[in-house]
Every structure is written in C-alpha cells, then in structure tokens.
Amino acid sequence: MNMRKGVAVPLAIVLALGLAPALSACGNVEGIVKNVTGGHVDIGGNKVPSDFPSAVPLYKGDVVFAASVGGEDKKVWNVTVKVPDATAAADIEKQLTAAGFTGGFKGADGDTNTGTFTSDAYGVLVVVTSAGKNGWVANYTVTTASVISPSPTPTP
C-alpha cells in the first residue's frame, strides 16, 4: 500500500474525532504529517481553509476548528461549526442534497447523528453531536473523490 494513501484515511479519522486540537499543541505535528503525506498541512484555526470546496455547503455557525491536509488532487478538509442542537442535522442534509450530494443521516445514537454524502467530486462525512457544556457542533470531513475512503465491513 502506498504510504501516502495509508495515512490520509487515519488522519481524516483523527480530525473527524476532534483530536486535532489536542495534536496541534504538539509542536511539530504539522511537519511530521507533511513529511509523511508529502502535501500541504494546515492544522488549527477557526476559519474555513481558503481552498475548502465551495461545492460543499457548511452550516452557518461559528467555526470552532478547521484543518486541511494533502495535495491538489488528494485532499482532506475538516471543519467543525457550532449548531443550535440535533435538529441541525436535518438542515445540513437539506443543504447538501440541494447542492447535488446523495446520501443522508442514518438515525441517531444518543446525542450523535452521523451522515455520509457523495458527489462526483467529493465525499462528506458529517457528525452532529453534543459537545457538553460547549453546546452542539457539526463536524465535516470532506475528501476529494480520489482519496481512498474506508468502506464498512459487512457483519456476518
């Protein structure tokens, strides 16, 4: 397996789990990830990355965290925005389907709603969850279609 492909998915998972803010405190994480992926890395910040795809609509909320990693043809973005509550999942689904994405949210697990959406150019994983005393957030992990994404393994 190509090392770059093997790193993109685990890094996306780390970003999606919201662990990136903790990682950004480790002084040289950006340099390490850049060396492994060979691409541009931007970890941290409260602004949507300038190269975030305009084809992917984001919920209108304060940006809590944003990051991107990879090169031009294989890129992963992660953006977390504040949302009012769990009902934001329905609005997010409407936004993405109106923008031409297929998919949706597949039920709720306690205080967490997870949705997957695809288009010809992008894959989007959205997790709407309670952040405890910090309210509710929607975490978007967006990949270019050329990035290998893990597929669920069927259970026997």
Task: Summarize the structure in words.
With 156 residues, this protein is α+β, with helices and mostly antiparallel strands. The chain has a 7-stranded antiparallel β-sheet, with helices on both faces. Mean pLDDT is 76; it is low at 1-30. Helices cover 25% and strands 35% of the residues.
Helix fraction bin? 25-40%
The SS-based structural class is: alpha+beta
The stretches of 5 or more residues where confidence is low (pLDDT under 50) are: 1-30
Mean pLDDT: 76
Number of helices: 4
Order of helices and strands: HHHEEEHEEEE
Beta content: 25-35%
Distance between the termini: 26 Å
The total strand number stands at 7
Radius of gyration over alpha carbons?
A: 15 Å
Shape: globular
Describe the strand arrangement of the main beta sheet, using strand numbers. Answer: 1-2-3-7-6-5-4
The biggest sheet, with number of strands, parallel, antiparallel or mixed sense and barrel status, is: 7 strands, antiparallel
